[in-house]
Amino acid sequence: MAQKFSRTRMPSGLPALALGVMLGSAGTMTATPALAIDAECAAAPEPVISLNYGSRYTDDDDTRSTLDVDSNEVVNAALRPVDDFIRDLVARSNGVLNESDPTAASGAADCVLAQIATWARADALSDLDSFTARLSMGARIGAIAEAYRQVRPLVTDLKAVADVDQWLIQRAQEQLEFWEKEATSGARTGNLRAWAALALLNIGEVTNTDTFVWWASASAVRILCTAREDGSLPQETKRGSYGLHYQFHALSPLVTIAARLDRAGLPMTTSCNNALPRVVNYAFNDFEQEGALTQEYSGARQSYFDGTENLEDHELAFLGAYVSLFPNSPLVDRAQKTENLSNSKLGGDQRLLWQ
User: Fold this and answer.
1) For the chain, where are the alpha helices, taking DSSP H only?
2) What is the pLDDT of residue 39?
3) Alpha-carbon distance 230 to 147, whole Å?
4) pLDDT, tens digit, for every residue of 242-253?
């Protein structure tokens, strides 16, 4: 049986309103702007129960860096209903945090809760028929849990709370068992493990489950401890032309976990010879050098510089959490100049969450 996380459970980074009421790549990950609070609560979309899809990458590429166009579209199509639900849900939860009227905020929080409860009562995301689906589901489960975490202090429907808690705990336990028993040794030190760790941190905090919080912490440290002296992550920088892309992708959950645990009195910023700032600085230093450092490891021109893609604002949303940890970092200026620090998988507007 899971142990209970006994620390005070006020989600970190939430505006004063919440405390006042308590006491009285499938595609872009940019979150939809916070929605204005509606008088009526829209019904949740049809819950997604089963997912079964293969890899986005060609079978003959061990580095998993050559996209199979047809397979990539199959994966995107399968995940689209889940990701659309997450974007809308996060926009609504951010809207709750932006609401100045406590009565309206509480009603809107119950709307977010009701939408999640619809998926919980249908046992959504319970039938993951492929290894790849189980591998990539952590970020989605974590995003739903983060939206719930944002509104949890304001909700009034305790039956829905119980149903959502039970569902999230079950999904978290399945993720934990997958990563400990089924995931490959390489994946266990990669970015998808970090996203799963963030999911378990979100669920552990909001359901008061200590086991999940400790597993999240241990997972993040395990990944950070693989960093080379220059800060590169071996599991990511070997990914051909996408090496630097995946180094950045790993930073979003790793930095967020570190910032959240720091606020909970569990600092990890100095673990493994200050690995966290080293892996962050590597990514930005290499970007300034047009991917030359990662090209040395991967043997390929990096995707940000070969015409494949651009470094988007949502990939830098973790800077909101990072500058809360390192307020004197040179990256403070980068954070201030980044127009939209928003990522649905991180819970939306990071300026709102880390102000």
Assistant:
1) 16-23, 69-98, 102-121, 131-136, 138-151, 158-181, 191-207, 210-224, 234-237, 243-263, 271-288, 292-298, 319-325, 331-337, 350-354
2) 58
3) 35
4) 999 999 999 999
Going 258 to 279 to 138 to 149, the CA torsion angle's sign is: positive
For position 27, what pLDDT does the model report?
Answer: 41
pTM of the model: 0.89
Strand partners, 48: none
Whether the CB-CB separation of 46 and 81 falls below 8 Å is answered with yes
Let me know: does 89 contact 147? Beta carbons within 8 Å: yes
| Highest CATH level, class, for 16-354 | mainly alpha
- Across the range 102-123, mean pLDDT stands at 97
CA proximity to 296, closest of 228, 199, 208, 202: 228
Calpha distance 121→338 (Å, rounded): 39
DSSP string across 203-238: HHHHHTBHHHHHHHHHHHHHHHTT--TTS--HHHHT
Average of per-residue pLDDT across 114-133: 97
d(CA 275, CA 20): 37
The closest alpha carbon to 147, from 201, 93, 83, 81, belongs to: 93
Instruction: Please report the pLDDT score of residue 64 as a whole number.
Output: 73
Structural domain boundaries in the chain: 16-354
Q: What are the tokens at 280?
A: 């962050």
Residue 351: phi and psi, rounded to 5, are -65, -40
Neighbouring-strand partners of residue 282: none
Q: What is the per-residue pLDDT for 32?
A: 66
pLDDT at 67: 78
What single-letter amino acid sits at 302? Answer: Q
What is the bridge-based pairing of β-strands 127-128 and 50-51? parallel
Average pLDDT of the chain is: 90
Q: Which two tokens mark 316?
A: 């830098």
265: left (phi over 0), alpha (psi -120 to 50) or beta: left
